[in-house]
Amino acid sequence: MELNHELISKSKKIWKHEPVFVFTIDVDWASEDAIKYCFNIFNKFKIPVTFFLTHSSDFLYSQISNGIIDAGIHPNFDINSSHGNSYSEVIDYCINLLPSAKSFRSHRYYDVNDITEKLYNIGIRYDSNICTFLQKVDPFIHRSALLRFPVYFEDGAYLLHNQNLNFNQVKEKLFCLPGLMIFDIHPMHMVLNSPDFLYARKIKDSLSRLEWNSLVEKDLKKLEYSGKGIRNFIIELLEFICENNFKTYNLKQIYEKIKYYN
Q: Has residue 262 been placed in a domain?
């Protein structure tokens, strides 16, 4: 299949003169209540999002079937993965979760040529499976022919590097300049309002896999950080976007704008 690189070059006009925001969410085995909580934050601001699924979620399936959210798969290729013991098993598991999927992001951004080629061959056409640290990198065509959308801002990376959670002190530098910004957000960081990278990790390590996946609203409320955390930061960002009428898309929408197939 022929690739039209010129279309990608022309598509830069979308974000050449203004910031453009794309929000994606890695479900990461979060409980239904945590997923709903995260969804409701973005829905309140009418911000379109793409969810990358790790497991079955009745709530997300209902949103997908009603055309409210975009979704892709979030395969886990780690050793002892609940998704399977080989690349093929993991991919089959995730495709069974979402047979209509056209996009993916691996857990921990893992990939090798065998993975991307298998995913392309079964119909996946684009991904967001590379993470920068606050670097705006234009979408590019991967060797597999997948169209790749590099992440600009990941909540975990922002916390890992102990970045400033005072939004007003960083907004001009991080979010006002022209460019395409792909965000990678995690429901548990949001619902727990993580103030640092290890906050959610410590809670997860204290629970079994089943307990983590079953946390209900009252439990999450008890566990959340009461000070300034990443949730406060993201909400201030969403308010800022709406106040300034910046353009927002989900991943499918931005892909459709720059699709490169003839």
A: no
The predicted structure's pLDDT at residue 189: 98
User: Domain range for residue 249?
Assistant: 5-257
Query: Phi/psi at 122 (nearest 5 deg)?
Result: -100, 5
| pLDDT surpassing 50 at residue 262 | no
Q: Answer yes or no: is pLDDT of 11 > 80.
A: no
Query: How far is Cα 214 from Cα 243, in angstroms, rounded to an integer?
Result: 36
Whether 17 is in a domain gets the answer yes
Span 34-53, mean pLDDT?
Answer: 98
CB contact at 8 A, 74 and 105: yes
50, 42, 35, 68: which is closest to 237 by C-alpha? 42
Residue 149 located in a structural domain: yes
What is the C-alpha to C-alpha distance for residues 18 and 177, in angstroms, rounded to an integer? Answer: 7
User: How many separate domains does the chain show?
Assistant: 1
Q: For residue 16, how many other CB atoms are within 10 A of its CB?
A: 11
In CATH, what number is assigned to the domain containing residue 18?
3.20.20.370
- State residue 101's pLDDT score: 98
- Model pTM score: 0.95
What is the residue type of 216? V
Query: With 80 as the cut, is the pLDDT of residue 244 above it?
Result: yes
CA distance 11 to 46: 24
Give kind and range of the element (H or E) at residue 180: strand 179-185
Taken in order 132, 172, 183, 194, the sign of the CA dihedral is positive
Q: pLDDT band for position 123 (50/70/90)?
A: very high
How many CB atoms within 10 Å of residue 204? 17
Decide if 181 is inside a domain: yes
Closest among 259, 148, 203, 252 to 28, alpha carbons compared: 203
pLDDT at 188: 97
